[in-house]
């Protein structure tokens, strides 16, 4: 049971981190695309790259934090 709950916690951490990172990345990517006047369809590509990159990083770190926290018993 301990292993399953740990895997579930890490999976939930990655999912929540990805969602938060994606939202932040979409807002930031849109802001930067407008700020730097990225032309035409390159805006969509730029926003997508920022969104996916931010979601991956946030998900990675929140998943790692959940994994570290999983080993502690309070």
Give me some keywords for this one.
74 residues, mainly alpha, 85% helix, 0% strand, Romo1/Mgr2, membrane, Reactive oxygen species modulator 1
3D shape: rod-shaped
User: How much helix is in the residues?
Assistant: over 70%
Return residue spans where pLDDT drops below 50 for at least 5 consecutive residues: none
> Number of helical runs?
2
Strand content: under 5%
β-strand number: 0
Structure notes:
By secondary structure, this protein is an all-alpha fold. It is built from two helices and no strands. The longest helix is centred in the first third of the chain and has 34 residues, at 2-35.
Walk me through the topology.
Elements: H1 2-35, H2 42-70
Kindly summarize this structure in a few lines.
Keywords: Membrane, Transmembrane, Transmembrane helix. The protein contains two helices and no strands.
